[in-house]
Amino acid sequence: MITHPIKPVYDKDSRVLILGSFPSVKSREEGFFYGHPRNRFWKVTSSVFGEELPLTTSEKKAFLIRNHIALWDVIGSCEITGSSDSSIRNVKVNDISKILKTADIKAIYLNGGKAYQLYQKYLFPSVRREGILLPSTSPANAAWNLERLTGIWKMIRE
Fold first, then answer.
1. Is the pLDDT of residue 119 over 90?
2. pLDDT of the residue at 149
3. How would you classify the pairing of strands 131-134 and 107-111?
4. Cβ(56)–Cβ(109) below 8 Å
5. Which is nearest to 71 in space by CA: 50, 41, 40?
6. Burial of residue 102, with CB atoms counted within 10 A of its CB: 0-12 exposed, 13-18 middle, 19 or more buried
7. CB 89 within 8 A of CB 45
8. What is the overall mean pLDDT for the chain?
9. Beta bridge partners of 69
10. Which of 20, 54, 97, 112 could bridge to 63 as Cys pair (CB 3.0-4.6 Å)?
């Protein structure tokens, strides 16, 4: 069983909550979200907001706060082989209620199918807030190039 090692990023001004599934091996090593250099999360979101690509953890946190984005994952702990979402077993979810109580979240977005599936199964019944599926920024989602991802991810600004 692996416990999620990264604290959520949010403040009272967060308006959008983006949830992934569970941090990759690289993200767990780095101690921050979307740490794999081939994951396109930071490229997509910085492009959506017309900003420079944040490189350091502090730049990434500042980017999220400045753009009113809360960021966390659905899973709090699980069994997982490497970074493969398809290998995830024995899920215990994160309690997102503290984010929802602190911030006036207007929309909840799920980064990829596994995050969406787990949100629907475990969090929606208690939260009662619709989650919006976005295509995964993972390099494993090769069907979506950077331009297509950025085009659909623009909805997080609206």
1. yes
2. 97
3. parallel
4. no
5. 41
6. middle
7. no
8. 96
9. 16
10. 54
Alpha-carbon span 64 to 18, nearest angstrom: 10
Cα angle, residue 48 at apex, residues 43 and 54 outer, rounded to 5°: 40
For the question of whether the overall pTM of this predicted structure is more than 0.70, the answer is yes
Distance of alpha carbon 54 from alpha carbon 157, whole angstroms: 18
Name the residue with tokens 């416990």: 3
pLDDT tens-digit readout, 7-64: 999 999 999 999 999 999 999 999 999 999 999 999 999 999 999 999 999 999 999 9
Q: Which domains does the chain have, with CATH numbers?
A: 2-157 (3.40.470.10)
User: What is the rounded distance in angstroms from the CA atom of residue 56 to the CA atom of residue 36?
Assistant: 13
Give the sign of the dihedral formed by CA 49, CA 62, CA 12, CA 110: positive
φ and ψ at residue 107, rounded to 5 degrees:
-150, 145
